[in-house]
Amino acid sequence: YANMAFDLHKTDEAMEYYNKSINAANKDVVKTALANIKKGYAYSFLNQYDEAMWMSQIALHDLDSLVQSTGDQDLYLEERCFAQRTIASLFQTLNDYNESIRNYSYSEQGYRVLFHRDSTTYTRSYADVNLLYARVLDLNKETEEAEMRMKESIRLYTKLYNKSPERNSAILACAHCWLGELYRNQRKFKESEEHLKKSIELYESACKFNPSSYTGFIAESWVNMGKLHLWTEEFDKAETELFKAYEIYNTLQESSPEAYKPSLAKLYYHIGSLYFFQKNYEKAAKYDSLSVKEYEILYKQSKLAYYIELGTSYGYLGNCYFEMQMYLEAEEYYEKVLEVNPTSGYKDRLEQTRTIIKRKKLRKP
C-alpha cells in the first residue's frame, strides 16, 4: 500500500504506511530491512538525504549480514541490488560520483545475474539500473560508456514498450530525455533534438494513463529542449519551452512543494541564462534571484547536495550585477560563491570587480 501511495506522489500517506509496515515486522530483520529500503527511497524523493542514506545503508547492512552468515550469495539479491541502487543515487545527489559509480557497478552486476536467469521478470530492473548508471557516468564525463548504456536501456525499454505501451512509455521517455541531454553536451544538436522530441511524445502518451505521476517529467524534457535551443541561440523557442516547464512545475508544487523545489530552482537559473545571453540583465537578475532564494533553502537542508548549484546561482547573479555596472552588488555575490564553493573559479572575477570598485571609488570610507 505504501509503495502504491508513493507511486501516486502521496508521500505523507506512503511514509505513514512504511512506518506501519516496520512496526508490523516486529523486529523481524528481513521484513524490517525490506521496509527500510523502500522508506529510504521515499526519503530521497523528499530531499531528506541524510535519512534516506541511513535507512538504505542499515537495510543493506542487515541483508548483507544474512548473506555472510548463510554463505548464500543469492539470498535477497534483488533487494540488495535495489538498496545499492538507492545508495548510488544518493551519492550522485551529494556530488560524490566515484562512490555513486561504485555502488551502481555492484547493483548492475547483481541485476545482470538476475536478468540472465529470468529476463521476463528482470528486464525492467536491469534496464533501469543501466540507465541510472549511465546518467552518473555522463555527469562524470565518461560519455562513451554512458552513451552505450543509455542505448542498451532504450533497446530493452523498447521491447517492453512494444508489449505494453501504457506501462513503459514513461521510462522509455526518460531514457530518450537523458540521451538527448548527453548529445546536447556533446554538441550533437540534431541527435539531441530528435531524442528530446521523442521523450516529450512518449511522456504525453504516459500522461493519458496517469497524469499525476508523469506530468512533472514532461517538464524536465521541456527544460532540456529549452537548454538545447539556448545553446543554438534560438531564443524564442528556448523561452517558450522553458516557460512551458515553469507552468507545469508551478502547478505541481502547489500540492507537493518540497518535491519540486529543486526543479524550480534549476529552472530559474536556466531562464536567467536565457535573458543574460540576450543582454537583458535586469530580467536575468530577477530569475537568478529566485534561483538563489530556492537554493539557499535547499542548501540549509543539505550542503553537500546543493553547494555547487547554490554557488552557480550566486555566480550568475553576480554576473548580472557586473554587466549592469552594479559592482558592489556583484562583489557581494562573488564573495558568496567562494564561501560555498571555493573551487568555483570566481576568484579572478572577484579581484577584477574589486579593482573596478577601487578605481571608481565606489566604496564608502
* Classification by helices and strands: mainly alpha
Categorize the overall geometry.
Answer: globular
| Quaternary structure annotation | single chain
Proportion of residues in extended strands: under 5%
**Helix proportion range:** over 70%
Encode the helix/strand succession as letters: HHHHHHHHHHHHHHHHH
Rounded Rg: 22 Å
Q: Which regions contain 5 or more consecutive residues with pLDDT less than 50?
A: none
Can you count the beta strands? 0
Mean pLDDT: 93
Quickly count the helices. 17
Largest beta sheet, briefly? none
* N- to C-terminal distance: 66 Å
Can you describe this structure?
46% of the residues are buried. It is globular, with a radius of gyration of 22 Å. The chain starts with a helix and ends in a 5-residue tail after the last helix. Helix 5 (77-93) runs antiparallel to helix 6 and helix 15 runs antiparallel to helix 16. It has 365 residues and is an all-alpha fold. The longest helix has 22 residues, at 49-70. It has 17 helices and no strands.
